[in-house]
Design goal:
258 residues, mainly beta, Thrombin, subunit H, 2 domains, six-stranded antiparallel β-barrel, six-stranded antiparallel barrel, 16 strands, 7% helix, disordered N terminus
Length: 258
């Protein structure tokens, strides 16, 4: 889904899924134009694993709660409570840290795979995690960051469009693109950008397949959830994320009832 350089956080490992233009990221992926990261710098980052394979990412918002993308947990993703695991506290998607089972998860009731609105979900772990410097939480944004604000995205996705994924966590530094700007004539999305979305772009850096559900962070808060885009690091197509500030009320309600 993402665009500019090769800051690549590659989320998934499902080579058979191709990413269509302007479609939600398949359950595989990468970060393009990125650099290797250590989990201690991004201790909220987690890997979602379906039947033993990494396919999406998420962000730890409490010792037992993870925020991710709705499209990572809808029925067509083939995910169940029984086959879903969450690895936290490791820079590597298949080793280290803690691999947790899941008690339950909830997908936003209004998520629509056609227009990609409301692309958010919450997972509750069966057993709360013990927090540490390499395994910690991130606060949710209360306001949408301003256009051109600095941001960071992380993941285990592919390092190029339809490329191979990374075993080690990667990060990219990027910039927020305001909704007005992202839907304007400078980019190719137009009216596809809605209020529940936020964009980010930087030349040759982007999130990509397999990074779905992962964090976009600005000013120390979770501002976005990797959602969709036109291929990865395409010059006229920023990465598109679920806007946490716009979806905060739903998240707050979901964590109480899940």
């Amino acid at each position: 889904m993402f665009r500019p350089t090769i800051l690549v956080i590659v989320l998934a490992n499902l080579a058979g899924n191709a990413l269509g233009d302007l479609m939600p990221l398949p359950l595989d992926g990468r970060i393009v134009g990125g650099s290797p990261a250590v989990i201690g710098s991004y201790p909220w980052q987690v890997s979602l694993q379906r039947s033993g394979s990494h396919y999406c990412s998420g962000s730890l918002i409490s010792s037992s709660l993870v925020v991710t993308a709705a499209h990572c947990l809808i029925s067509t993703a083939g995910v169940t409570i029984a086959n879903l695991r969450v690895r936290a506290g490791s820079s590597y998607k298949y080793s280290g840290g803690i691999l947790s089972t899941v008690k339950d998860f909830r997908v936003h009731e209004a998520y629509n795979k056609s227009d990609k609105m409301f692309d958010v979900a919450v997972i509750r772990l069966k057993t709360p995690l013990k927090l540490s410097p390499s395994l910690n939480v991130i606060p949710l944004a209360e306001v949408t960051p301003k256009h051109n604000a600095d941001a960071t995205c992380t993941g285990w996705g592919a390092t190029s469009y339809q490329g191979s994924s990374s075993w080690q966590l990667f990060y990219i530094n990027t910039r927020i693109v305001g909704r007005t700007e992202c839907s304007g004539s400078s980019y190719g999305y137009g009216s596809k950008i809605r209020a529940t979305m936020i964009c980010a772009a930087f030349p040759q850096r982007d999130a990509c397949q397999g990074d779905s559900g992962g964090p976009l962070v600005s000013d120390g808060k979770l501002v976005g959830i990797v959602s969709w885009g036109n291929k990865c690091a395409e010059p006229n197509y920023p990465g598109v994320y679920a806007n946490v500030a716009e979806l905060r009320d739903w998240i707050d309600r979901a964590v109480i009832t899940i």
